[in-house]
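Data card: per-record layout.
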Amino acid sequence: MLGSTIINRRQHVGLQKLSALAGVTHSSLGPNKKYKFIQDDASGESTLVCSCFRIFENLELTCAVGQLVYETIEAHQKVYHTGSGCLLFLAGAWSRVALECLHRGISVAQIISALSEGMDLCLDVCRKSSVSTEGLESLGPDLSKKHTAEASQASGYLQGTPKVGLRTTNTSGQRKIKLSRHFWEASSENVSTVPPPREPKLLDIAHIAEGLSHGCVNAMNLAVEASRIQAKNNQQDLNCPTFDVTKVATCVLPGLPEEHSCVLPGCVVLLSAEQASVAHRLKEQHLKVALINGDLSRTYRHLGFNRPAGVQRVSDRSHLSSSGEEEEWVEKVVTLLLNLEVNLILVSGLVRETVIQRFCRHHVLVVEKVKASILSAFGDATGAVPVTYASQLSQRCLGAGVKVAVWRDLSSHGRKPSTAVNISTGGNSKLVTVILSSGVHGKLQALEDQFWACAYRLHHVLKDRVLLPGAGVTELLCVHHLRKQAEHHVKRQRETDGDSVQQTTAGAAANPYRGEVLQLMADGLIDYISTVMVNSGRFSKVRAWTAVSRQLQDCNGSLAAKFSQLFLGGEEDSAVSSAAVKIYDNVSVKQEAWRKALDLVFLVLQADAEVITGIEQKAEGAQGTLMRL
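The structure for this 629-residue chain is written out next.
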């Protein structure tokens, strides 16, 4: 993608590359995501992707900015599993803002100060316009009025004469900039928006989930079903439901139609024919289980308690020649397990096929590649204690009460492994498996990603207990607020220009370009809104910008209801207005995506500045203009 972008070597190259890389994600925004084929020129192999994260995961990134972008969205995806497209788009849009500011002669320190204040304003809009999840079911048809009232309150706040904070970000105490090459989850103090009510009311999870599906209706239905099974098995208080995504696993079944996707209690895994024969022998029995946290092999060594991120396990074939030592080790482990009467071993890492076959001969079922969180869930439900090496196993480490059931024989579909087996721990477990199937093998990864995105949206909304108006409404409110602040600052600047005494005030002297920067930042959000509108298939880019501009000009308190109707169905389609208000966004996900996007721009901006101008440590004020990385 960078090959088609003209890069001016005399300007900030990093910001230009960031803007160019962000262009990759434009088609992955909005509910109508488009699939892309990524082909390896060397091998000719290709993969099918439809999300920002998967696109970058499959690209060969050779530049430092590309690696930084990937690390950023990888860290965000690991925590939230959604919002990476929004993050990178806004990083690209705001990198163009920084470039424009530099072109106008605005200093790096002034850019950072103004953009940081703009972010504070946007986060404040989120707090003002968020909607509590409590009592949504009781509202019923009045939900539209609720949203309109909330948005009107926010719009009224935005339309009033704002008090401009004239201090710089470093001294205001509103937002401390702390940048690193690695991005971590935000602290809870920045996520809170609406205090919970005194008496919680019944939540309509299905309705909330519908608004958070963002076009992935089938995936969200699976997430809702998984949460219901967890609630039923644990007899949760329906007034305060939760969804524990760490106790959810996925099982991918290629070859079957997508209609076969379903949710089952327990942990469903695919086994070979030999393993399946052991499962048939063990069914309806109460089994003893051992948990191995790592690889079950003679050569495996513990990686340490602070394990590096991104480590992937691969099969080690270098020790196959030492068959004598391997045979001796396997014999010792088999003897130990038989003495302990262990029937089932769950391993988070890898197990060699020859070892699995050897255990099968003694009617011991070994299951590899079990998620660490699922392993922990089995430990909680059975009393088993995970160990690193098989030699550490004893009666005190074993769990009991596990059952194995053969769920479906898939040998007729010509696949290996051929049998799906359900491993469960009784009726009070939160363990749930989502079965994902498709006749198109290349779609399975995308379907799995869509499910996890929906599952984490549902998880975070039940955790945060608040929602944001969706369909671009929140972003539009932010644009409105940023423009008001920009206009107010320009007005004050003109007043101070005519008075030499007032011109020495802290705000005017500190950053006279604040209004310009806030206006450009608002334009970046408009670019995001219009791009999503274009991806809906109902708007051209020009018409989308025109529609957004007209909405901002006509803003009169019912902005949310008006714009969400326009966003989904166009101005002439009034039938969708009731459906439009059902679209929500997660507060914590959106806020963190915005923060990471701006921090990424700041990091590249300062790195560019250091490369171009250098750092003079002895220069007066030099230390104050730098961000510590």
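Known properties of this structure: The longest helix spans residues 587-613. The mean pLDDT is 77.

See the next section for split statistics.
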